[in-house]
Amino acid sequence: MMQLNIKDETGPLRAVILGTAKSNGPVPSPEEAYDPKSLEHILAGSYPKEEDMIKEMDAFAQVFHKYGVQVFRPEVLEDCNQIFARDIAFVIEDKLFHANILPDREREFEAIHEVLDRIDPNKIIRPPEEVHIEGGDVMPSNDHIFIGTYTAPDYKNYITARTNREAVEFIRDMFPHKTVKSFELRKSNTNPKENALHLDCCFQPVGKDKAILHKNGFLVKEEYEYLVDYFGPDNIFEIDKEEMYQMFSNVFSISPEVVVSERNFTRLNHWLRDQGFTVEEIPYAEIAKQEGLLRCSTMPLIRE
Ligand SMILES: NC(=[NH2+])NCCC[C@H](N)C(=O)O
């Protein structure tokens, strides 16, 4: 049996699910897109090629190998986009939550059965149907859990709004001893520069006390300021609209000292090194075209 353990975003990683770009399917039609950045590339004829994305994910797997992390891959389903393992499930402490994801993406969950079979069934939890929640919006931080959400009355008009009010209440009930703090995120179905698809598209803790943050991703000023206060203004790396579009906040921590980042994120990688981090740079610009990056492609199972 596998003992799940996730308390934060940066503890030393021991086991992870890494998505796969194999049999990703044909280029979707504009109507099939469920995020504005994919839509942009579908319309421009620059949608990423499977072979290029496979290479990028191989480079990511190599880094895990280098650090001795146990890596699970989903079973490859035919013509199914399984890159973003983050959203289909998430682990908090010793429980794995089966996300109530966008119906277009539901098939992806069954493909992680190799991992599910190793987990005590009592530790696998499926929230009730009315709870919409995806792992990209959920971030445990020791005695806190941060959740990205969208609760305005036009929620159902946004295919980019994936985590609802019921989800915040559900997580609160599950973890009564933790502070569950929610953040209203800016949503756009058509403009990727005005869309924080998930919380990890505008915010990401790094190390023990630092964070990458994008102000415009948040709809409520006080909620953004809560995070600035939580980490302290000097510990925040604020990114602009263009950097958020490139997904600067979607890097991935292997430990409090080691961050995997995209090789073109010059300003961020420089800052990280200045702060004493080891930065493992890999190419991930093709996958970035689908509005997800490194954190989105992983689903951590065990951190120490
Ligand atoms: N955790 C994330 N930010 N995941 C990104 C998922 C991107 C994917 N195109 C979607 O719209 O579902």
TrEMBL record:
Pathway given in the UniProt record: Amino-acid degradation; L-arginine degradation via ADI pathway; carbamoyl phosphate from L-arginine: step 1/2
Pfam families linked: DDAH_eukar (PF19420)
Signal peptide: none
Stored PANTHER family: ARGININE DEIMINASE (PTHR47271:SF2)
Keyword Protein transport belongs to the record: no
GO MF assignments: arginine deiminase activity; transferase activity
Any one Gene Ontology BP term: L-arginine deiminase pathway
Transmembrane segments: none
Classification via SUPFAM superfamilies: Pentein
Domain of life: Bacteria
Gene3D superfamilies: L-arginine/glycine Amidinotransferase, Chain A
Catalytic activity line of the entry: L-arginine + H2O = L-citrulline + NH4(+)
Name of protein: arginine deiminase
Keyword Lipoprotein (UniProt): no
Entry keywords, A to Z: Transferase
